[in-house]
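so my prof wants the structure for this chain in the tokens format not the other one, which i didnt know existed until like an hour ago. anyway here's the sequence
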Amino acid sequence: MLLERVYDNDLSQAGYFIGCQARGEAIVVDARRDIDDYLDLARAHGMRIVAVTETHIHADYLSGTRELAAATGATVYVSGEGGQDWQYGFEARRLRDGDTITIGNVTVRARHTPGHTPEHLSFLVTDGAFSQEPGYMLSGDFVFAGDLGRPDLLDAAAGGIDTRFEGARLLFTSLREVFLTLPDHVQVLPGHGAGSACGKALGALPATTVGYERLNAWWGPYLREDDMDGFVGELLDGQPDVHAYFARMKRQNKEGPRILGPLTPPPELGTEEIRKSLDQDAIVLVDTRSHTDVHRGTVAGALNIPGPDKAASFGAWTYDPETETRPLVLLTSDADDARKVRDHLLRVGIDRVAGHTTTMEGLPTFVPERLAPTELAEADVALVLDVRNRTEHAEGHIPGSRQLSAGRVLWNLDALPNEGTIVSYCQAGARSSVAAGVLRRAGYHVVELDGGYSDWVARGRGRSAPETISG
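here's what i got, hopefully its the right format
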């Protein structure tokens, strides 16, 4: 058996390529939408991808299940669990608890493990050429290394009302009735790693085991003492902000993402063409350089989506394809970076990239305003805006500041003052630059705090109790 982890550092997301060498067949679980890595693996190992599936209706990225099936002719399998409200809206074979997919000598068995979502499946993988018992669990967003999938996303991303409590109780039951019934040696391969917003304390390890989690995970004592109430309280406490784009991902993944087909690189556009399009307000210019480069000067009205490494994460915070019809033009270092940024944006459903440029020459430029921490106390500002996570804000922040994470700014503009200056800050400057670009395009006067909160603290400033903008 061949088992390969395909990891996206941008979204901290893992998919899996599982193959049977004897038959030359493979299945892919939890594919992302730019599918070249899976096709390359199949070619490298002389295999055909004959099946694709996913653990649940994802909220943090747009699924590549349909895209990969269209490219390979593979059969699509999705969960049939969770009740009528959680059925996929596209044609696929439905998996119920205990159903199997056979790929040569490899058996993939679905286990219903609700809690993170009602329809969630985990997959037990058995290498029939070696053993008749499962040796691996693809746990999706059920069990992570050192943590569990958060059960509160349906409230924030799918219009649920207090579903987090029932979700937490279902996680407790899934642990007791499925996970802890497995032998200790079973390797657990989760769907996310450290940095994902799908849990609050995900470990960086790519894998764990049932036995290791049984002994060491924070939830172990609650299960051993059968303390469901304590488990629920601990699980729900301190979860990070839910990015606003998660709601769009949920809807699109349930309905079935649009199939893109073969892709060509974004074309390089001439400066005069871009300038005319900017004059006509027909495009959105995206500066993909770091915030330190942007602070030295950028294109007037540009968004800052640093890339390519985090373009999906930052892009999903700054551009809503459901409300924005103008295509993106990318300012990148070269054509290869433009292609990489485009591919990352596809992972969060941002499909309209008209082209790229490698120069600002001949375009209207702008130098973002910044404010030194020592100047903040005397500045005339309407709002000091902390765009970090609420957990970071609670640990310490600039007195009088209000918290609204960068991933929610675009969807909560009505919570901000219409007049006056907004001073934005994050920990060191990257997220603040991203959020400031959004606010400036929306017409706000924004000044960024130079060096962010870390520099403010380094200069001997204090801490204060949290204040948060709801939404």
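also thought this was worth mentioning. DSSP finds 15 helices and 25 strands in the chain.
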